[in-house]
Amino acid sequence: MSNDLFENTPHPGLHFRLALELLVDVSDKRDLGWGPLGQRFIVPITGGVFRGGPGFETLKGMVLPGGADRQLVRPDGIKELDALYELRTEDGDELTVRNRVLIDESRAGQRYALSRVSLSAPSVPWGYLNSRLFLGTLQSARPTRNAVIVRCWEVDDREFHLRGSGS
């Protein structure tokens, strides 16, 4: 009976669009010791830059120093990262980024490093970012720069229409 519902209810196609690219400068990781869930670390965020993807071109600026990436290495070797930091747009607004990353380096080939990124923004002109789902990727910029590259993909269940002015 429930199989009929699966068969007869069309599923929406999900669409992904690059919304944001961030180059986040970091300093050295500091060991916080073991906790009940695993070994804990903190990585201070010291600055960086960001830019919007297609349709988000007006979204650009700098990563502000003062944030941090809290890391947990679980007993099974999986890493959980929880980064919280601010961005300042070229027009002076400040956005808060929370990036929760899951890293599995046990796979052959490229590591699994995907995240859910939440953006908190003032209502104008960036308020629409508060009501969107973003998935992220995380890559190291080393040895060229002591930084990570975060790319955020907006997820939607319909075709995208370019925003032109970021609204």
Task: Specify Rg, calculated over alpha carbons.
Answer: 18 Å
Order of helices and strands: HEEEEEEEEEE
Average pLDDT works out at: 91
CATH architecture: Beta Barrel
Instruction: Report helical residue fraction.
Output: under 10%
| End-to-end gap | 44 Å
Main sheet summary? 10 strands, antiparallel
InterPro entries: UPF0311 (IPR020915)
Organism: Paracoccus aurantiacus
Protein name: DUF3237 domain-containing protein
Task: Summarize the model shown.
This protein has 167 residues and is mainly β. It has a single domain (21-156), classed as Porin (Beta Barrel).
Description:
It holds the Pfam family DUF3237. InterPro entries: UPF0311 (IPR020915). It comes from Paracoccus aurantiacus. This is DUF3237 domain-containing protein. This protein has one helix and ten strands, in the order H-E-E-E-E-E-E-E-E-E-E. It is mainly beta and 167 residues long. The chain has one domain (21-156): Porin (Beta Barrel). Strands 1, 2, 3, 4, 5, 6, 7, 8, 9 and 10 form a ten-stranded antiparallel beta sheet that branches. The longest helix is centred in the first third of the chain and has 7 residues, at 2-8. The N and C termini lie far apart (44 Å). The model is unreliable at 163-167 (pLDDT under 50).
